[in-house]
Amino acid sequence: MVVIFGASGDLTARKLIPAVYNLAYDNLLPADFFLVGFGRKAIPDDEFRKMAGDAIKEFSRRELNQDIWGRLAPNTSYVAGGYDEKPAFDRLAQHLSEIEKKVGREVQPLFYISTPPSVFAPILKNLGASGLAAKYRGQAHQAKVVIEKPFGRDLESAQALNGTIRSVLDEPQVYRIDHYLGKETVQDLLVQRFANSIFEPLWNRNFISSVQITVAEEGGVGSRGGYYEQSGCLRDMIQNHTMQLLALTAMEPPVSLDPEAIRDEKVKLLKAIQPLALGPGGDVARAQYVAGMTGGKSVPGYLQEEGINPQSATETYAALRLSIHNWRWQGVPFYLRSGKRLARRVSEIAINFKRPPGTLFAEKGARFDLAANTLSFQIQPDEGLSLILNTKIPGLETRTQPVKMSFRYATTFGSNTPEAYERLVLDAMIGDGTLFIRGDETEASWRICTPILQSWAAAGRNGMDTYPAGSWGPKSAEELVTKNGHAWRQP
Ligand code: BG6
Question: Which residue, judged by its Cα, is nearest atom 9 of ligand 1?
C-alpha cells in the first residue's frame, strides 16, 4: 500500500501516479495493492481517481490500459486533512485499518512525503503520534517513509530534520530520495566501474588529470519561481544530484552490493572533500542568467521572470572546484557545474586522462593534434558512454586525429526504459535502500555546501556573475578551471 502526502501536487501527477501505474503494468505490485492520497484539499474518492487517471494519460510513458487501471482504480482512495492536525492522522489510521480488514491481513504501508518541506516535520511527528509509524515498527511489514527533496536548506536544518526522523522512525524505515540515483545511467556507473577490469587500475591520480561533472538544463525556472527564489542552484542541484554523481564516481570499491556498504563508501568520499576557498579567486562561482536566446527564441533574464525579486541574490548557476584528500585522488581537481538556461540539457561525467607525452609524434615536426583521452558517461539525454582516442588519419603521411568511440543504450537496448521514480518507488516498497540517501550522507554533503551558502548570503549580490540565457555559463566559471590549465568540455 502506498500513501501519498501531497496527493494533489505536481510531483504526484507527473511522476508518482504514473510510476505506480507502470509498476502495476509490469505486474510488480501485489494483487491487493492500495493507493491512498492524503492532502489538505477536500477531494471525493471519485474525483481523486479521475485526477489519477488523467495524470496517467498525460504523463505515463505507456498509454492508459483500461484493464490495468480497472483493477487499480477501485483500490484508490483519498483522505483529506491538515498535515499538522493529529485527528486527520487518526482518520488516516482508521482508513488504513478498514483496508486491512478488507484484505484480511496487516498490510505494509509506504508513506510517501511529497509536500513542501515546511510540513515534513509535522507529518513525521503525526505519523509518530497517531501510531502509524510505530504500529508496524520492528516487524517484517514495518512502515516505510519516503522523503522528497529538499532535505533541509543547510547543515543545521538537515540535522534537525534527521533528529525528528530519529524520534519517530528507525533509519532502515527511511528513504531520502534523490531521483538522479534512480536513473539507469547512474546505476550503470557502478556496473561500469566495478564489472570491467580495464577501469579500476587507471581510476586514480596517476592516470587521471581531472574530472568534470555537468548537470546542465536548457529550461528556466518556469512557474517554480517562488520555490527557486528560496533555493537556488547550489541547494536545488549541487548539494544533492551532482554530489551523488561525484560520490559514485570517486568512492572506493564497496565490499559488497549491500546498501550500507555502498553508502559507507559514499560517506567516506564526501568526508574526504577539503573545505573550499571562498571569495574572489576561490573554488566557487555563482551567476544568474540574463536575457538571451534558447531554442531559437528570445527569453527573459532571471530577474525578469515571474515571481522573482528584481534584486534577487539567488544563483541560477553554480560551479565548484573540489579537492579530495585521499590516497586515490590527491591533486586531481573535481569540477562540478550546474545551471538553468544553459546551451542545452545535458548531464555527464567526464573523466579526463593525462595527456600522452606526445614526444614520439612531435619528432618529425608534423602537425599532430594529440588529445587527452576522455571517458564520458552521458547520463542524459542520449544516454551512453564514449571514449576519445587518438587515431591515425588514413593516408601516406602519419597524422593523428582524436576520434570518439561511442556506445548508446537506446541503440543496443531500445529506448523504453523505466523512469527513475518507478525504480525508486519499487525499491522503497521492497525495502532496498541502495538508491536512497542515508542521514549521515546528506549531512556530509551539507557540511561542504553550507559554508558556501553562508558566504554568499553575507555577500548579497556582490560577486554574482551573469551569463546570457542559452550560453555555457559565466566567465568566472571558466576561470575556475583555466587556473589549473584545464577547460570545460562542450558536451
Ligand atoms: C530537480 C530540481 O530535483 O531536478 C529541478 O528541483 C530540476 O529544478 C530537476 O529541473 C532536473 O531533473 P531531471 O531529471 O530533469 O534532470
Answer: 237
Same domain, 213 and 120: no
Q: Does 148 sit in the ligand 1 pocket, CB within 6 Å?
A: no
User: What pTM does this model have?
Assistant: 0.94
DSSP code string of 93-111: HHHHHHHHHHHTS----EE
**Whether residue 272 sits in one domain with residue 123:** no
By residue range, what is the domain housing residue 198? Answer: 181-416+439-482
Q: Which residues pair with 287 in a beta bridge?
A: 317, 465
Number of domains observed in the structure of the chain: 2
**Bond from prior residue into 381 cis (ω within 30 degrees of 0):** yes
* 170-204: burial string, b at 16+ Cβ within 10 Å, e else: eeebbbbbbbbbbbbbbebbbeebeeeeeeeeebe
Write the pLDDT tens digit of every residue in 466-484. Answer: 999 999 999 999 999 999 8
- Which are the catalytic amino acids? 241
| Average pLDDT estimate for 92-119 | 93
Contact 14, 55 (CB under 8 A): yes
Residue 427, SS3 per DSSP: helix
CATH value at residue 49:
3.40.50.720
Burial class (CB in 10 A: 0-12, 13-18, 19+), 371: middle
R_g (Cα) of the chain, nearest Å? 24
Question: Distance between CA 162 and CA 254 in Å, rounded?
Answer: 25
Assign residue 223 the CATH number of its domain: 3.30.360.10
pLDDT digits (tens, 9 = 90+) for 295-320: 899 999 999 999 999 999 999 999 99
Do residue 202 and residue 82 come from a single domain?
Answer: no
Ligand 1 atom 14, closest CA:
180
